[in-house]
Write a structure and sequence with these properties.
four-stranded antiparallel β-sheet; mainly beta; Methylamine Dehydrogenase, Chain H; 397 residues; 2 domains; elongated; 3 helices
Amino acid sequence: MASRALKYWKDRLRVQHCVLYIQSLGDGKLLSISSDAGLRFWDLAQNEKKQSQCKKKLELQPPKPEAPELGNTAGGVMASKSATAAKSCGLCTVYTYLASTQNGKEGGTQAIVFGGYESGRIAAWDGEDGEAIGDFAGHTNCVTTLVASATDLLSASMDGSIRIWTLEADSIANAECKYVLEFGDANPVADFALLKNGDCLAACSWDGNLRIIDMKTQECTGIAEVCSTAGLRSMCVSEAATGEVLVFMGTEDCKICCWKIHVNGELAEVRSWKAHDGDVNKIRIAYDKLFSCSEDRTIRIWDLRTGFFLDEMRGHDGAITCLCIADKLCWSGSRDTTIRSWDLDDMNLRIWERKQMRREDLLSHQVEKYTSIMGVGKKKASGKRAASKKAGKRKKA
């Protein structure tokens, strides 16, 4: 019988368009959003006869072209640029978070979904019914990254800027743009991360540079050329208790670069290596490991401290666009319109087996080397010489 190909993925969920965003909601629930602005809640509970089912699907309403601009012209962005009508383009970036609500007697949390469009518009939706509750105009090109906190929304764009929006507690619709961080018209911002409880911001852009920005003074306090041959596409950070920060960045020429931000703000390169055969789209840190996904349709796992390759997951038929790690599962979304899950226990077992195999290979190499130096024939010859020496000493005695 022909040997069957290894099946690494555990479960497969199908949608109709490219998957942009996935997030675990706990208790066996998963949220996914695709490029057709379709939000789906998945019930992952399985039994022998029932597979994972889409529990609820919402059609997120697109922003209205005639909606007025809610931001200002801070940072030198001209009002004439941001006031242009949004062209009909698809959703390209999504972010969700739970906002505290003070309305009603009990209060609680509300799931807010932020989506960025290719035109530069940003919309906000209620995660329960999909109703549009906010519309942000200001960016003039594709939105690349969205991150929300309790009071602010940060958005990066291919127009070379990061905008900071103030979110009102009562109404998302009253959000205003506080200020704009400019990186240059020909320098798209790919990704960013907040550091030190929001006091600093690390941003990577297509010019291959990593920048550290003081959010209080809105000034760039450090800059380093990470990659001189290609632009940066994704990033994630690991903050230590000592105050030092490790920044991992994926490039368009298949590399992952690791840089350290010292307590005094100094930037230093740690290591870089070729990680994939295509653009590195997303990087995530979980369980002291680095997970990366790429245009080459693979997910690869690396040792967080050394960058040593640990494992690889294959199964998608298209580029992998997003990752989510929760409940001992790694969920991945792809342009092949599927979401797949990967068992981290199986991954750890494969990593342990490879470690044991390397150990046995090393031991076998040591035994082979010892035998080549101290072979059987050489041992007999040395034994005969020792015996003859002893006999000679006895005769002299």
